[in-house]
Amino acid sequence: MAQSTGQTFPDIVELNVGGQVYVTRLETLTAAPRSLLWAKFTQSSPQELPTDSKGRFFFDRDGFLFRYILDYLRDSELSLPDFFKERRRLQKEADFFQLPELSRRLAAASKDSSSTEDSAEQEEAELGSPVTSSSSSDRAGAASGFITVGYRGSYTIGRDIQADAKFRRVARITVCGKISLAKEVFGETLNESRDPDRPPDKYTSRYYLKYNFLEQAFDRLSEAGFHMVACNSTGTCSYGSSDPGEDKLWTSYTEYVFCR
């Protein structure tokens, strides 16, 4: 339970930010004086903050972008992945959490990124690359839409935590979306036996692939002009037997959402 029974916060705090769970130190949350988190966790008591059903302190914000807020509070540095496309959304999160220095850095980075992209687009237009032009024209009439790729996986972790995890093979990769799009991308590798004879303008969640390599599915989606826009995963842990000393068995279900 994240919520303390007293009037002070625990040293280790559990947060639920938009459905994403984070565990961090109290000193990290209060690292930026006069920020929203600093005010919430120094000027309030645990009983005054909203919590979820498990007692974790709840914030109704973007749970995926909050990881960068935490990184900034830990190191006072802005470190984003290459080709990060959500600087403006992250800037809004920085404004909400009252982190003016982070917001300023993001605004400057967005401005620099826009200038670089504009220059690159202008240079590309002047060069008139036949490869780019051909690719763009080939996809100009392609239908837009979403395809969701999902799979269930499991693996075991032995009692020796230094030992390698024993991964099990992915049994099946499912494909959800408009039938015409699924057939365009996956063609003969798509198993239609579970949902045959449906018109191409309908949707299905019953297709699966004849192979079990996620990378192969991702390559086909990329070649068809799709890019990943979201992903989520759930997992459970159980013991292989009634003996708690035995290896732990983890099972998970993961979905990747692609858009064109």
- The backbone outline, from C-alpha atoms, is globular
Strand content: 25-35%
The number of helical elements comes to: 8
Give the tally of β-strands.
Answer: 10
H and E string: EEHHEHHHHEEEHEEHEE
Structural class: alpha+beta
Q: How far apart are the first and last residues' alpha carbons, in Å?
A: 42 Å
Write down the oligomeric state. Answer: single chain
Radius of gyration: 23 Å
- How would you sum up the major sheet? 7 strands, antiparallel
Overall pLDDT, averaged? 81
Which percent range fits the helix content? 25-40%
Low-confidence stretches: 1-6, 124-137
Describe the fold and architecture.
With about 260 residues, this protein is α+β, with helices and mostly antiparallel strands. Helix content is about 35%, strand content about 25%. It contains 8 helices and 10 strands. The radius of gyration is 23 Å and the shape is globular. The chain starts with 11 loop residues before the first strand and ends with a strand.
Gist of the model:
The chain is of the alpha+beta class.
